[in-house]
Amino acid sequence: MNDALDALDEELSEGAGSPSSGVESAIAAGKGLQGLSHRRAMVELPVYLLVQVAWFVAFGMQTVLFPYLLKNILDVSGTLLGLAQMSLAAPSVVFILLGGVVAERGDGRTLLLIFHLLAALPAAALSFALEGGALAYWMMLIYAVSMGTIGAFMLPARDAILNEVVERRQKAGSGITLQQGVAFATLAQFAAQIVGLAIGGLASHVGVWPLLLIQTVIVAAGAGAAVFLARGRMVRTGRTGVGAVFGDIAEGMRAVRADPVLWSMVASMFGVGVFVIGAFLVVLPIINADVYGQNSSGLRNIFVTFWAGAFCSSAALSRVKRLMRPGRLLLIAQALGSACILVLVTETPYPLFIGLVFIWGLAAGVSIMMSRAIVQAAAPPAMLARVLSIYQLGFMGGAPIGAAMLGVFADHAGPRLVILVPAVGMLALIVWMAFLTPIWRMSPDVEATAQRAAS
């Protein structure tokens, strides 16, 4: 289907043959192109969601297997666990802005295909090392840096394509909105992560190395799905040479700084990275092992419960085309999640602990979906990938800081008292967002900015 449509594009642009035959060919090709474009536009969203599913099933498996290998197999300290998780997140700080430029200048379909194939290699290498009894901590660090780097280029490429997919579907007659497109993508992400987490939780029973091979196959399957996407827009900024990359990044930075909504969201996501993701990556695995004495099944229970909550809240929001106060809903959800974290300081029975994780997940689903919808709607269309990469930089730039910081604190304060750091930190951030940024008072339509920019 892709080849046929691309061939029609080339035939129309060449205009070969006599004038009359050229007109007839153009009319016939135009009708064929219109029908083929309509069919592609309608199938493209499901295909995009399949790409999303392939990545996040593998990501869900990694969420369990990576800390399980470190904590339960290699028995590393909290500091080393934090360092490894920092290595997984740190490459985004270095490469995410470059990834945004690459995503705008390159063909999104080809980029997703390449990145999915590359992401299959580290898991396969780790599987063979583990099966041969040669697993070492330094191998985990190499795996972390490799996957973090690939993810830094993957995220802006995949997220920026969604706007184009929704736009083409709207032109084909669909009534879908950008907020709903984000909701569907978020639902696919959460559902896929739950499946991946459930598979990863089998590590204690079937072994880790076979699951790493399964992770390899699943993430590689995303490349097959990406083949059926349309070619993405390739933005031309007029800059050339090595300095063009830095010029494009600087232009994106200026656009974010000039928009108080975008700047507030980037700052907010930095705080979420430090406090929430740090707790998610470091504190929860430590609590699982040191407080409740659980193995990979316990990690699976925690993460599946969390993402099940996120899935439920996102499913509810996906039925709403437009929310009246998206920023207000975002901050309330973040406050609820912070309150759940704070309760974990107490001697919480395991069933109550799992219940709080579920409520935290409900709040996270709202927070993740609304923050992404706000940013994708407010970003200038010509700089969407760059703005998304800056947004992700705020999020991922805080994650390694939070992971390293909370790992050290956990070794000194214990697995329960360390929870005070992310809980109090997030509550302070929410107060700042509510009173000193425009997020609480945002206009009711999250797509207003995008529609004005496109008109």
Which strand-content bin applies to the residues?
A: under 5%
Tally of distinct domains: 1
Helical proportion? Answer: over 70%
- The number of strands is 0
What would CATH call the homologous superfamily? MFS general substrate transporter like domains
Polypeptide structure, described:
- The protein has a single domain, classed as MFS general substrate transporter like domains (Growth Hormone, Chain: A), CATH 1.20.1250.
- The longest helix is centred in the first third of the chain and has 55 residues.
- With 455 residues, it is mostly helical.
- The protein is globular.
Short recap of the structure:
This protein has a single domain, classed as Growth Hormone, Chain: A (Up-down Bundle), CATH 1.20.1250. The radius of gyration is 23 Å and the shape is globular.
Give the SSE map.
Elements (H helix, E strand, L loop, with lengths): L1 H13 L4 H55 L4 H28 L2 H24 L5 H35 L6 H23 L2 H4 L1 H19 L16 H16 L1 H32 L4 H22 L8 H18 L6 H29 L5 H30 L6 H17 L11 H7 L1
Helix pairs in contact: 1-2, 2-5, 2-6, 2-8, 2-10, 2-11, 3-5, 3-14, 4-5, 4-8, 5-6, 5-14, 6-11, 6-13, 9-10, 10-14, 10-15, 11-13, 12-13, 12-15
Please supply descriptive tags for the structure shown above:
globular, mainly alpha, Growth Hormone, Chain: A, single chain, 16 helices, 455 residues
